[in-house]
């Protein structure tokens, strides 16, 4: 395993996903080994099962695996933010820890950011979703409402498979639910969005740990806040330093 500075960081937020740890890490390494120097950062978001112990066992075998731990669960957005802030790669890719996001699509997402001079975000767009009919109905309505108001041109912001420039992400104002508004906020900063169709699959084990209210209708206050941020954006001035 290379010990050089990674060019890519994979961030995986998890809460109580002990049985999904080892299979998902194996799939990530199969997708990325030999292509990039990379690190995997699992953000253990207040798990009360054996998630931490499973991660420690794999860490003893893989020098590029890191674990961050929230003492109490802060939610998915907080976990992603912790991982991005700790990341050493210039490009960060995210995926959910339940196994529904297939790591085989990570190279396409990473390459889209790497090769696009103005691409700030590559967003996975799910096809053949494996959620319940009610969850899919919720997502369709939420995506239509969000797109009508923000006009971000994205049909699916809830997919966990994303890749982005770390510095672009850190420009964003942080709030709970940020990960669902990334396309609109990345466009706000003047960057392009690349889209990659990804095939969803059933959860491998366990039940959803980011619950009903994490998936329900986009919060009206959040949507209004992001709309306000976009409307209030001013052109970023070009800055040069004048030397004596």
Q: What does the radius of gyration come to?
A: 18 Å
Low-confidence region ranges: 211-217
Assembly state (oligomeric)? single chain
Distance between the termini: 47 Å
Q: What is the mean predicted local confidence, pLDDT?
A: 85
Helix/sheet category: alpha/beta
Number of domains: 1
Beta-strand portion reads 15-25%
DSSP helical segment count: 9
CATH C-level class is: Alpha Beta
Which CATH architecture would you pick?
Alpha-Beta Complex
The major pleated sheet works out as: 7 strands, mixed
Query: What is the CATH topology?
Result: Spore Coat Polysaccharide Biosynthesis Protein SpsA, Chain A
Pfam family, one: Glycos_transf_2
GO molecular function: undecaprenyl-phosphate 4-deoxy-4-formamido-L-arabinose transferase activity
Protein name: Dolichol-phosphate mannosyltransferase
GO biological process, one term: lipopolysaccharide biosynthetic process
Explain this structure to me?
One of its GO terms (molecular function) is undecaprenyl-phosphate 4-deoxy-4-formamido-L-arabinose transferase activity. One of its GO terms (cellular component) is plasma membrane. This is Dolichol-phosphate mannosyltransferase. It comes from Bradyrhizobium stylosanthis. With about 240 residues, the chain is α/β, with parallel strands linked by helices. It has one domain: Spore Coat Polysaccharide Biosynthesis Protein SpsA, Chain A (Alpha-Beta Complex), CATH 3.90.550.10. Helices cover about 35% and strands about 20% of the residues. The chain contains nine helices and seven strands; from the N terminus they run E-H-E-H-E-H-E-H-E-H-E-H-H-E-H-H. The protein has a seven-stranded mixed β-sheet, sandwiched between helices. Mean pLDDT is about 85; it is low at about 210-215.
């Amino acid at each position: 395993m290379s010990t050089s500075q990674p060019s890519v960081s994979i961030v995986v937020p998890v809460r109580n996903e002990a049985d999904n740890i080892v299979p998902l890490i194996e799939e990530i390494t199969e997708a990325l080994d030999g292509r990039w120097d990379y690190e995997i950062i699992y953000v253990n978001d207040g798990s009360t099962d054996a998630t931490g112990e499973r991660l420690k066992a794999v860490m003893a075998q893989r020098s590029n695996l890191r674990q961050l731990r929230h003492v109490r669960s802060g939610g998915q957005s907080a976990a992603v933010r912790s991982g991005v802030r700790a990341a050493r790669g210039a490009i960060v890719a995210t995926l959910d820890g339940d196994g529904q996001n297939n790591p085989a699509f990570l190279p396409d997402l990473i390459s889209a950011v790497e090769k696009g001079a103005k691409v700030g975000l590559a967003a996975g767009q799910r096809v053949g979703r494996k959620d319940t009919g009610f969850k899919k109905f919720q997502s369709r309505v939420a995506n239509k409402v969000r797109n009508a108001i923000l006009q971000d041109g994205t049909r699916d912001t809830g997919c966990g498979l994303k890749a982005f420039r770390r510095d672009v992400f850190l420009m964003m104002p942080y709030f709970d639910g940020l990960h669902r508004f990334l396309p609109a906020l990345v466009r706000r900063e003047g960057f392009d969005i690349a889209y990659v169709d990804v095939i969803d699959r059933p959860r491998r084990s366990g039940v959803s740990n980011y619950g009903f209210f994490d998936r329900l209708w986009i919060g009206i206050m959040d949507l209004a806040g992001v709309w306000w941020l976009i409307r209030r954006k001013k052109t970023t001035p070009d800055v040069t330093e004048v030397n004596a």
